[in-house]
Amino acid sequence: MSFLVSLCTCGIIGRGVFDCCQEVRARPSQAGRRGVVHLWRHRLKRWCWCFQRGLKMGSSSRKRLTVAMAAMALGGAARDAGAVVKYWNNPDGGVFQAEANWDPTGAPGSSDVARFDLAAAYTVTFTANVVNSRFIIDYDKLVLELQGSTFSLTAKKPTSFQMGLTDGDVARMTMRGGTVVNYDALVAAVAGTSANVTVHSGATWENRGMLVIGNAGTGGMTVTAGGKVTSRSARVGVSAGSVGNVTVSSAASSWKVDTTLSVGGKSLDPRSGRGTLWVRLGATVEAGTLLEIKPAGTLKIDGGTVTVGRLTSLGTVAFNAGTINITSSDLAIGTSGPLGKTVVLPPTRTINVTQNVAIDAGAQLVMQDGRFTASEVLNSGEIRFNSGNLEGEYFVVNRLANAAEGLVRGTGRVAAGEIDNYGEIRASGADQLILTGPARNSGSIVLDSGGTVEFLGLLENAAPGVVRGSGMLNLHAGMNNAGLMDFNSGFAGVSGDVNNLFGGRVNVTADVVSFQGNFVHNGSQFFVDEFSNVVFSGDVTGAGSFTGRGAIRFEQLYSPGEGPAHVSIQGPATFGPSGVLRIGLGPAKAFDSVSSASTLDLSDINVVLEDGFDPDPGDVYPIVSAGLITYNGSLHVPALSGGLSFEVIQTPQSLTLVVIPEPTGGVLLVSAVASLAMRRRRR
Length: 683
Prior knowledge:
By secondary structure, the protein is mostly beta strands. The chain contains four helices and 66 strands.
């Protein structure tokens, strides 16, 4: 103790203590490794640091500092009461359990502290499991070859695992082939220290409390070659002036944090702690509750997987390649979100969100054959698909809600269980956008300059929803239209069945619009501009009329009305070679009829009796009228009971059926105008 007192006195009254400190640092192995002198040398190093600063103080401040150091010494002794601090003394390395490698002699026991401070590089080998109270590395480069053993540290207070306790310490430690178990851990515990721990092949580092990398100094952790780290919680770069760097690299390497993992200090002030977490090359990092990237923090993902309960960031997130999984909270894409306002997913990036994703106004999610999954997506910004693959499901959500200001566009596949569009869905030029789930449109579906939009589920176009433009609309499960279909330029095609409901409108000002499925028209409007053409390739039914002077062509069946109805066609109408006009006759003078102010070019006409109806003698049915009728097919009428038959009265402007008694003697009554191309048939 007299040695200690003399050094302390020297420190207070002059600079001799600094030479002593330098001597201790320069030749630690020769500074005396026995008894009290060795034990107190380590505390002396702290006091030297304090004295160096204390000489700049006034006399009163220096007195307070002296009292504080004395208290620190006593406190340190109290904390380690009942424990023996054992110092490793073999700079060539050796077996941990070998008694001669320790000072005082004998390997540390379950209540002892194992401390390493030789300023040397060496390997310590374990031959069996070891239990100590604490583990400290001051100034050393140490490799722990655990050889399948478990090194357990039992102290909760003070911290059971510490590296870098004195200003100027440089501590390096690598663990391989076994398990280290402790409670809290501090790497670079105090300012002015540099410390790094590497968890290498076959090693597991189990922290049952908080793991701190860069507490006040410059700290680092590298997990590689299949190493594994676990901790209850963790911080990287904590106190003012500290730096923390963590790299988790290579497949099978992992770091699992049960609760919160915090990276960086609270501000960008240079005095704030700075932290970096780098996950790469197939490694995984998990934070069960929260991964928070603070203003002075950075998260880099280069081919690794990050799985978190929640992700927040006021710092920097560099998502270059890999996977982000968010398991128990929503994700915002926008200026307030952890990934920023533009998220691009090429094939090397994947985002999986168990809950919901909100894309803010002005923000973008760009799909470039990367993968994205979520429960629900509320898009108030833009989802852009730049995909070359329309078969694989890369964007998969239970529900996509495209808000009024939202835009979904490009080439790609939207695998959504349900789609609600209040904004805009657009395909331009060569774009082909496929949406798999049933969809409800109250916004706009835009076919721009030949773009293709394809719905694999039923499309409900509700008022005030609109489908507009020129391009292809492919409807695998059909469409119910209560809104507006507005085809305004060039060519437009609709593949699939369309049911134009009450209130539904169709407006055609494009050159040609082709409906390639069945079409039911019971809506309020079907307008065809005089310079436009509409072609129906499937069956057409319904009681709705056709306005406008444009041309309409029926390639298959046209049945005006689902019950008896009168339908007017304002423009010219043509029936193709397979086209059939179906006319239904019912009771109470109810029957189908078609009229046109223009021309009707007819093929076959099929007349049917609805619901077993029997007409009476003298019933008259004016079924077709037009400015000019051209007959190019056959008239098929049903056989009547009670000795009755149909007489056909046909003119260039009309076609009328009259019920008359069946002629006797097989003589057929033929109208005076029967010489026209239309043939009369009885059945």
